[in-house]
Amino acid sequence: MTRSQRDGLLLIITSATGYSFFSIFTKIVYDNGMGNPLDILTWRFVLAAPLAWLYILVSRSKSSADEPTPIPRVKLLAVGVLFGVVATLAFYALERLPVSLYTVLIYTYPAMVALGSLLFGERLSGRGWFALGLTLIGVALTVPNIFKGFEGVDPLGVILVLGNAASYAAYILLSGRLLRGARNLTSASVWSITGSLLFVVLVTGIRFAGESGPLPPPNIGVWVGLAGLILISTILPIITFYAGLNRLGAARAAIVSMIEPVLTLIWAVLLRGETLSSIQIIGGLLILFSVVLLNMRQRSESDITATLSASLASD
């Protein structure tokens, strides 16, 4: 492995680690008194979008590279609005579910991406169908007493996280096709974040019309959680992922990124004292194994790049 590849490996690990704290920071915000998911959504994108654009401006001023490849900005804004929906569902799901259960269920989205690709005329291989089957079995094992009325688990939380995964899969499919062949992926991601900000503006307008606008963070604990959510789990992962992608390559980056859910489960146990039963661990492992299989199915470097670029605004 060359020095550049080693640097790329460290950058991708840094990115995955940043994303792995998303659920933890969200729970910190909830634990400290900001109980409305729409308030968390609002502050995340109101603060993240300007910081992302600041990074773009600074990086461009220091770069001597050629003009970036034109990107479909208006369409990216529209896709960003969709990601606003994705983020909203994530915050509502985390309000009702423990981090560990949310983590294993949200990783059903790669199987949904594979299934959704059939709508675009792409044929799913035997390995892909096998991975999809593993995912369904994993979900059944992960949700305790799923056949006994979701005893001990909030059924609405499960529905929300599966809706979160489905909408995220749609976001990836649309973004992947939109960005196929594009090179300036960092700017594309920032335009998508801006679209999410537009979604927040729309939601805020509706809330004000109902005479209940967003509330400011009530204490330092909420600010700490929001700062982590924005800086460590939004801005940092985007920057380090693209830097690592250039050095390591998309195929390797895809596989290395699979440490993200594993890390999230570790943080859930160490930082929040959560536990998973043996049967839930087996179910989670089946879901993660299906994700690895689906990544191995990707043989085209450009296709992997498109898919990964679409998933950068992860969570």
Short description:
The chain has 315 residues and is mainly α.
Order of helices and strands: HHHHHHHHHHHHHH
Give the termini separation.
Answer: 31 Å
The class by helix and strand makeup works out as: mainly alpha
Which band does the percent of strand residues land in? under 5%
Biggest sheet, open or closed, and with what strands and sense? none
Poorly predicted regions are 63-67, 299-314
Rg from Cα: 19 Å
Tell me how many strands there are. 0
Summarize model confidence as the mean pLDDT.
81
Q: Tally the helices: what do you get?
A: 14
Helix content: over 70%
Query: Per the principal axes of the C-alpha atoms, what is the gross shape?
Result: globular
Descriptive notes:
It contains 14 helices and no strands. The protein is globular, with a radius of gyration of 19 Å. The longest helix has 29 residues, at 220-248. Helix 4 (73-96) packs across helix 9, helix 8 (155-178) crosses helix 14 (301-310) and helix 10 packs antiparallel against helix 11 (250-256). It is an all-alpha fold. The chain starts with a helix and ends in a 5-residue tail after the last helix. Residues 63-67 and 299-314 have low confidence and may be disordered.
